[in-house]
């Protein structure tokens, strides 16, 4: 075969071999691609089934609505598990166990059921399947509030009982002390009676002559003691008379040189002025208020403007403060006369109350507070309470610091008891001496006040000066 044809045959052979090789390679690649494609298709189908098991297409489209905000670095499933763990923690407490959601939910359901059983001991639970922990907690909270309120009420009752017990214990103690004092007094009287019986027994054991002699000796001793006492009394009276005469003479000399001070000027000093009148409401307004230490309940007497306060203290009307502002106050008219109407510019005063100083009072005598003709045994004490209520001060004795003496009726001295009356009532002489001492105190305070130029006020004059005359017949006036 010629060389040229042999070369052509070889070229065709090479071409055929190359084509067959390419065909085989292509077929192999196609087979491999097909196999891989089928494998990928099967895996895709498996993955689609797994995805469908996790969530449907509709659920996947609503992840944000179903799950909520996706946590950073977490998948939607991880975010849901995280939220579930928080819910389980709120229900059971502690840290959620690393187990399945089913186990976590079942454990939470079991814990909730146990909690419902415990709560049923204290509250009523309806359908357990429809009652959640929030309703249980709210029910327990309401029951706890009831228990706390009941405890507080019980504690209050206990405190009241304790207070009543303390008061009763205090009253019993005071009663016991009073009874002990009465016992001591009775024992002392018993001892005195025993001594007197012993003296009488000793006297009875003596003969008649001895008894007469003993009684005569006692009588003579009593006469000697009485004579010595009378001599001392006469001497003291003489010295007192000389001292009083000297004092009177010196006062007369002093009054010629310089008149004595008018201590009653305090009683005639006005305390305020009426600046406005409402006749229909029977209310007046005063130019004194909180800055002047005015307070509700203060009574005052109204006097005509442009005139001085009369010596008897009687005014044209009486008022009582019911409202107080910084620089003024309002008062209701408690007593007035139609012929003497209250006018703007009229002055007001109260003897006890003073915006600048504290007046000092001394009280003596018997008082018929409501003018019913019967002496009130505690009249002086009630007047003292009234004075102190309005800022005044009450002293027991006259001194240079005293401003006024409130003088009631002269105390009555009881008739001196006889020996027979003393035998019947051993305290009869004590009561008689007490009445005598009250009279001596009354006269002594009156004389001291006059000697020191201290104003002496009768009960009625005192009431006029404090605007209280119209109140004495009312309940609770004292």
Keywords:
single chain, 478 residues, alpha/beta, 4-stranded parallel beta sheet, 56% helix
Main β-sheet description: 6 strands, antiparallel, barrel
The CATH architecture term of the domain at 357-478 is 3-Layer(aba) Sandwich
How many strand elements? Answer: 10
Q: What string, H for helix and E for strand, traces the elements in order?
A: HHHHHHHEEEEEEEHEEHHEH
Mean pLDDT: 80
Task: Give the strand line-up of the largest sheet.
Answer: 1-2-5-4-3-6
Distance between the termini: 166 Å
Spans with pLDDT under 50 lasting ≥5 residues?
A: none
Structure description:
With 478 residues, the protein is an alpha/beta fold. Among the domains are: 1-54; 63-105, no CATH class; 265-350, Thrombin, subunit H; 357-478, Rossmann fold (3-Layer(aba) Sandwich), CATH 3.40.50. 56% of the residues lie in helices and 10% in strands. It contains eleven helices and ten strands. The protein has a six-stranded antiparallel beta barrel with strand order 1-2-5-4-3-6. A four-stranded parallel sheet has the order 8-7-9-10, with helices on both faces. Strand 7 (360-364), helix 8 (379-389) and strand 8 (393-395) form a beta-alpha-beta unit. It starts with a helix and ends in a 13-residue tail after the last helix.
């Amino acid at each position: 075969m010629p060389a040229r044809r042999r070369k052509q045959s070889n070229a065709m052979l090479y071409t055929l071999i190359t084509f067959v090789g390419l065909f085989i390679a292509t077929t192999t690649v196609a087979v491999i691609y097909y196999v891989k494609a089928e494998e990928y298709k099967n895996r895709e189908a498996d993955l689609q089934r797994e995805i469908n098991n996790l969530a449907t297409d509709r659920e996947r489209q609503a992840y944000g609505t179903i799950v909520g905000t996706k946590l950073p670095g977490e998948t939607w499933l991880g975010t849901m598990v995280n939220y579930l763990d928080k819910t389980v923690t709120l229900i059971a407490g502690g840290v959620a166990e690393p187990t399945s959601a089913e186990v976590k939910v079942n454990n939470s359901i079991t814990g909730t059921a146990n909690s419902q059983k415990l709560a049923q001991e204290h509250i009523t639970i309806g359908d357990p399947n429809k009652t959640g922990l929030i309703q249980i907690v709210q029910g327990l909270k309401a029951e706890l509030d009831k228990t706390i309120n009941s405890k507080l009420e019980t504690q209050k009752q206990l405190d009241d009982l304790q207070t009543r017990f303390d008061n009763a214990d205090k009253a019993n103690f005071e009663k016991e002390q009073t009874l002990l004092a009465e016992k001591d007094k009775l024992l002392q009287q018993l001892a005195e009676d025993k001594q007197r019986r012993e003296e009488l027994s000793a006297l009875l054991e003596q003969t008649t002559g001895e008894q007469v002699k003993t009684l005569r000796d006692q009588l003579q001793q009593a006469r000697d003691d009485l004579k010595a006492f009378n001599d001392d009394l006469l001497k003291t009276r003489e010295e007192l008379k000389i001292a009083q005469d000297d004092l009177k003479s010196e006062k007369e000399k002093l009054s010629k040189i310089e008149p004595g001070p008018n201590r009653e000027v305090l009683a005639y000093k006005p305390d305020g002025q009426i600046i406005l009148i409402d006749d229909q409401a029977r209310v007046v307004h005063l130019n004194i208020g909180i800055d002047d230490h005015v307070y509700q309940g203060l009574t005052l007497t109204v006097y005509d403007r442009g005139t001085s306060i009369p010596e008897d203290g009687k005014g044209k009307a009486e008022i009582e403060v019911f409202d107080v502002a910084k620089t003024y106050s309002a008062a209701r008219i408690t007593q007035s006369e139609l012929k003497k109407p209250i006018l703007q510019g009229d002055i007001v005063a109260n003897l006890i109350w003073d915006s600048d100083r504290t007046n000092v009072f001394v009280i003596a005598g018997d008082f018929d507070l409501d003018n019913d003709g019967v002496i009130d045994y505690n009249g002086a004490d009630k007047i003292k309470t009234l004075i102190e209520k309005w800022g005044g001060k009450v002293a027991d004795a006259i001194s240079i610091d005293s401003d006024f003496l409130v003088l009631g009726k002269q105390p009555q001295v009881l008739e001196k008891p006889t020996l027979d009356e003393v035998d019947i009532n051993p305290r009869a002489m004590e009561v008689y001496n007490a009445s005598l001492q009250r009279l001596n105190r009354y006269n002594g305070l009156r004389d001291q006040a006059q000697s020191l130029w201290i104003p002496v006020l009768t009960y009625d004059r005192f009431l006029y000066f404090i605007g209280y005359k119209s109140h004495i017949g009312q309940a609770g006036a004292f």
